[in-house]
């Protein structure tokens, strides 16, 4: 049973990693900004900032995929992922007049946080019982 839980947790790391890799395509294809964020017209600076965000999300995705394979990386990668996702959720929730499409992006981050919390629980190292003779 413990093995199935670890596999499930690892697969959740992979799933959230892939979810974070997907926006990385925007860095290469800025024409997808409208599809991803509902941003139709933006100036060059705004476009660069959104493309940079896409690169940072892709890096987080790669880190989550690496953490799926390297257990010692899970805690620091989880901390970074949680900070990034919570900060975006709070920014969207507290910004008046933001593009409505961002609400669905924030909700995806809420789902990702739930998946990461589950992954962390299922894959955390348990202390080995001490056997005395």
List the keywords:
Phosphopantetheine adenylyltransferase; 6 helices; 0% strand; mainly alpha; 133 residues; elongated
Commentary on this structure:
There is one protein chain. This protein is mostly helical and 133 residues long. The protein has one domain. It is 75% helix and 0% strand. The longest helix is centred in the middle third of the chain and has 26 residues, at 44-69. The chain starts with a helix and ends in a 10-residue tail after the last helix.
Helix content: over 70%
Approximately what portion of the residues adopt beta-strand conformation? under 5%
Low-pLDDT windows of residues: none
- Class of secondary structure makeup: mainly alpha
Mean pLDDT: 88
Straight-line N-to-C gap: 27 Å
Number of helices: 6
Strand runs, count = 0
Note the main sheet: none
Radius of gyration: 18 Å
**Could you state the order of secondary-structure elements as H and E?**
HHHHHH
**Number of separate domains:** 1
Gross morphology is elongated
Provide the fold topology.
Blueprint: H1 2-21, H2 24-28, H3 33-37, H4 44-69, H5 74-94, H6 101-123
Please summarize what this structure is.
By secondary structure, this protein is mostly helical.
């Amino acid at each position: 049973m413990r093995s199935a839980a670890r596999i499930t947790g690892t697969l959740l790391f992979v799933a959230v990693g892939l979810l974070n890799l997907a926006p990385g395509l925007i860095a290469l294809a800025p024409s997808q900004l409208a599809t991803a964020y509902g941003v139709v017209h933006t100036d060059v600076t705004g476009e660069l900032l959104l493309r940079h965000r896409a690169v940072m999300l892709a890096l987080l995705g790669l880190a989550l995929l690496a953490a799926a394979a390297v257990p010692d990386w899970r805690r620091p990668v989880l901390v970074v992922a949680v900070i990034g996702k919570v900060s975006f959720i709070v920014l969207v929730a507290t910004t008046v007049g933001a593009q409505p499409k961002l609400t669905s992006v924030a909700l995806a981050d809420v789902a990702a946080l739930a998946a990461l919390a589950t992954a962390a629980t299922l894959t955390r190292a348990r202390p080995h019982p001490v056997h005395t003779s």
